[in-house]
């Protein structure tokens, strides 16, 4: 395996992060979040469930520390010269503290405190091992650099979107009466892998009939029936970049209530996408989405944010909602290069649900829709 991006691209990212460290008067930072390590270095491995970290000095080359058996993955996926491994019997936190001290850090060290893979016990122990060093939280430093994608990142997201589109379309065509939800999921998985997807940040969702009223309902043994909706959502991965798509097909004529949900959801998606452009904010898009749903008298079915940023992801999530979400509290304006998943979904628990989404690239002008599906009924195009 070779690095996904050029040496120049990776060097630029690292330089920007080191500039942030200097502005914060930090001597060194310890990064544990897999997505942040990947963004800064290109390093990726399914073995991120074990301890790994990137020690980044304000000046100079970083050190990547990981389980000894994983070192070869670091060598294959990055341009780094300083990669260290620790044995399974060693204390990785002590090794981390040793690396930090070896970089000459004596004043301020930046640590993450919200990483899913740097638990509170490890954070407390590392702080203790660093001794009198002042520790500063850095959770948003890398995250905010990831928000606006480079041209190379945008191309990766376009590649991911093309694979996602193929997977959703194949799943939509397979969602026929008599098929099990797991049969549809198998088609989705197989198609995305055949089209070029890596392992994904979250499993595809396939929910039919009343199960479509449950958020995050993965496939089951349920047999799809005539005259009901089948809700699909998935995101392929290309270079760890994910571009999701939610889409609903129906196996015959829908009842009036479900048909109204579908039309409201599609109109809400389109109205929201239209505002994903410079000069507007996520709060505005969320308000537009809710207003559209409310115009159908269905606001009681809509109980969530209207979307989130997407980019690099490892399980258990495919999104960057912690960086930016389309909700009433987010007032930063959209900038060209941001990529968001606009995903209104209307559900009635125990009855059913309808969801239509789009992954959207913010440009200087019209938003560019990256993910879409033209299948409304199995075998039929919109």
TrEMBL record:
Transmembrane segments: none annotated. Residues 13-148 form the Creatinase N-terminal domain. Residues 155-364 form the Peptidase M24 domain. Pfam families: Creatinase_N (PF01321), Peptidase_M24 (PF00557). InterPro entries: Creatin/AminoP/Spt16_N (IPR029149), Creatinase/aminopeptidase-like (IPR036005), Creatinase_N (IPR000587), Pept_M24 (IPR000994), Peptidase_M24B (IPR050659). It comes from the Bacteria. This is Xaa-Pro dipeptidase. It comes from Auraticoccus monumenti.
